[in-house]
Amino acid sequence: MWDKIVYILITIITMFLFKNKFYKISKYVEYYLKNGLIYFVMICDGLIFTPLFIWKGKNAKNGRIMAEPSKEVTKIFGIKWHIRNAEIVSENRGAVIVLNHQSALDALCVCQLWPAWKNAVLVVKKEIFYFWPYGLALYLTDTIFINRGNPKVAHELLMNKSKDLLQNKIKIVIFPEGTRNDDSTKLLPFKKGAFNIAVEAQVPIIPIVVSPYYFINKQKHIFNKGHVIAQCLEPVSTEGLTMEDVPDLLNRVQNTMEKVYTELSDEVTKDLPPDYPLTTTKKY
Question: What is a single cellular component term in the Gene Ontology annotation (predicted)?
Fold first, then answer.
């Protein structure tokens, strides 16, 4: 009996002396488990929905079907999502939606937004197509895969595919930064693709600003619970604009989104303790 008591006492003393080390190890494990879970969800989506979509046929409506159950997964992460002004993107019309790009968690953010978008297709880098079976499932949602290494080919593909989609009142969702933004204090410079499409088709641009994922810190291997706000902004008309107006249009939209991004950043972090390990660069 005494040997068990001594063992328990030694265990308690050890945990007390090395509690900071144990805490770091547990946060390290949690960080990689949650990151791995994001990709695991993608794989499961591919396994579950690819056979269904093959039977249904390639269709933009498939995206919403896949998103509905997937959005519930974030409850495991302890993330609270707040979608503001969802009615703006719910209108049945063709439009170009632009939103900021932060990390792999955006895949689950998209699932939160898709029910509001209803009929929409994503524009993503072609490498994602080869992440099977998820890439195949995305292909069957009519996702547009572009080659970022060949801007000319990517532009032609976008312009050709977007015309029919927008005429059929299907929204096109683009991350105008073009890549993940490692700096959570500001947005990257926007690329012209989304704005060229909108002006060419004379459809509105609908900006969506997603607050920074302040609860993820790669350097310290932290992936905590958190709060994310996705705010849909008023549509920006392109009626009467020409390609010469694209640079000004791009700047206006980016400036508006950056202002809202700063406001949302302040809002989601205002109640955090002073020693909270916020990240400003290199999330993951």
Answer: membrane
The CA distance from 121 to 61, in Å, is 9
Diameter of the chain measured on Cα atoms: 87
pTM confidence score = 0.84
pLDDT per residue as tens digits for the range 104-160: 888 889 999 999 998 899 998 888 898 888 999 999 999 889 887 777 877 788 888
Pairing, β 171-174 against β 222-223: unpaired
In what helix (H) or strand (E) does residue 271 lie, and over which residues does it extend?
A: none
pLDDT band at residue 193 using 50, 70 and 90 as cut-offs: confident
Give residue for tokens 């953010």: 109
**Closest by Cα among 167, 127, 170 to 145:** 127
CA separation for the pair 44, 33 (Å, rounded): 16
124 close to 172: Cβ distance less than 8 angstroms: no
Q: Which H or E element spans position 121?
A: strand 120-125
Structure tokens at 136: 């195949």
pLDDT tens per residue, range 218-276 = 777 888 888 999 999 999 999 998 999 999 999 999 999 999 999 999 898 887 776 66
Beta strand 205-210 pairing with 96-99: parallel
Q: What CA–CA distance (Å, rounded) separates 269 from 244?
A: 39
Closest CA to 171 of 140, 137, 144, 132: 144
